[in-house]
Amino acid sequence: MSRYIGAIDQGTTSSRFIVFDKAGAIVSVAQKEHAQIYPNPGWVEHDPLEIWRNTQEVIGGALAREGLHADDIAAIGITNQRETTVLWDRKTGQPLHNALVWQDTRVDQLVAGYARDGGQDRFRAKTGLPLATYFSGLKLKWLLDNVPGARAKANAGDALFGTIDSWVLWNLTGGVAGGLHLTDVTNASRTQLIDLATLDWDESLLEAFTIPRRVLPRIVASSAVYGTAKVAALRDVKIAGILGDQQAALVGQTCFEPGEAKNTYGTGCFLLMNTGTHIVPSTAGLITTVAYQLGAEPPHYALEGSIAIAGALVQWLRDNLGLIAKSSEIEALARQVQDNGDVYFVPAFSGLFAPYWKESARGVIVGLTRYANRGHIARAALEATAYQTREVLEAMQTDSGIPIKELRVDGGMIGNELLMQFQADMLAVPVVRPRIGETTALGAAYAAGLAVGYWSGREDLKRNWGVDQRWRPSMEPAQRNRLYRSWQKAVSRSFDWVETAR
């Protein structure tokens, strides 16, 4: 039996390949960033060819670092930035346009137009999603309508659509020479083109968005053997797991029971609660999504609160303002002050996601006086993530009727102890960091490993999970409530900055 499981983790800012052992420990990892392309305000793009080159490079790098070969890897899983949309030529393998990233807001007028006829929730009962710039369906429509020749190619069957998992899988399994055109149920559930009950492309939605069915990938379970890799470094290794990144983190945190929840602090912030095999509609501004489907088992669903800007705000302070030289410096700068100095930073760079869903909001810093300094702005930026998480968690408890007793956390920001303590204080429940922090890639590895029998079942995975650190709330309720009221006032100041067509 091969000794290890591999995972491709294709994220918003970088691509990684991580090799795990049976205990879920990291054996080897390689990572490479890709360019963020901003052609216009609110537009965010990636080069799909750069992402594929980087993916190949990190696979080779991680294997070479520990002297590993294809026969050491039992299977690989794929996890990916979810709603990011790629359209490419079936015959040449060339993208027809840069990928439209999940943060991209260029379809805001399409959102407004569809909402005028039936409201923002006109598709929610079937898809679990409100009309928003976030999801893939309208991004695909924009590409078909605006890229010269794209719709003709799509109608002829010569164009292929996919989220990044589909793009990577197609290239990994041969590309123009017979590459597999698939996506899993979690990624499909983020397109706004499937019926959550049937987990199939819905003809009425395709008609509403004018999308030809033949451009779409086949939908498969999150854990199953799909095919084998054709690239040299992994030749003939089974590809056996696909999960959107936040669902992968839910699996990596072993949140398999209804009511178990995790929050990922990455470029954005994403809080998911497992609701079991039941589709739970949201009345509090969340979305309903597929959590995972393991093999032939029934799919599990989740409630999700999506926050567009979390770690990306720290990057913005670094890259756009030069406030820090490295992202890791943000905590030390924030610790130079005792509190936020009554400064609040609402990072609505791409509008506000859950629970507001306001495309016309934009970022604001409020409460500035001559007293405020760099440290207060840094602290306000970190606190913004914790406030937004509280908003989402309260909505989740309202929708589910389940009080969350602790929050499992993962992602790049969980090493920031100032943020984690403030998060516990804002939520008034413990915040728990697991022993294995790379839960997104680990979830994809778990899906692949289950499919090939590397792990025998969920109990194997649960035994791998352990606590690294637990932060308990220590703030007085009066102080907690005062800060949160001020945050809510700041959020209201960000509304309706962009005027949309009526």
Describe the structure.
This protein has 16 helices and 23 strands. It has 502 residues and is an alpha+beta fold. Helix 13 links the parallel strand 21 and strand 22. It is globular, with a radius of gyration of 22 Å. The termini are far apart.
The first-to-last residue Cα distance is: 62 Å
- Mind summarizing the main beta sheet? 7 strands, mixed
| Count of β-strands | 23
Structural class: alpha+beta
Percent in helix: 25-40%
Mean pLDDT: 93
Give the DSSP E fraction (strand runs of 2 or more residues).
15-25%
Shape: globular
- Rg is 22 Å
Uncertain parts: none
Number of helices: 16
Strand order of the largest sheet: 17-18-16-15-21-22-23
Summarize this entry quickly.
The protein has 502 residues and is an alpha+beta fold.
Helix-strand blueprint:
Elements: E1 4-10, E2 14-20, E3 26-33, E4 45-46, H1 48-65, E5 73-80, E6 85-89, E7 99-100, H2 108-116, H3 124-127, H4 136-146, H5 150-155, E8 159-163, H6 164-172, E9 182-184, H7 185-188, E10 194-195, E11 200-201, H8 203-208, E12 218-220, E13 223-228, E14 238-244, H9 245-252, E15 261-265, E16 269-276, E17 287-292, E18 300-307, H10 311-319, H11 330-334, E19 344-346, E20 364-366, H12 374-400, E21 407-410, H13 417-427, E22 431-434, H14 439-452, H15 458-464, E23 467-471, H16 477-493
Parallel strand pairs: 1-5, 5-14, 9-12, 15-21, 21-22
Antiparallel strand pairs: 1-2, 2-3, 4-7, 6-8, 10-11, 13-14, 15-16, 16-18, 17-18, 19-20, 22-23
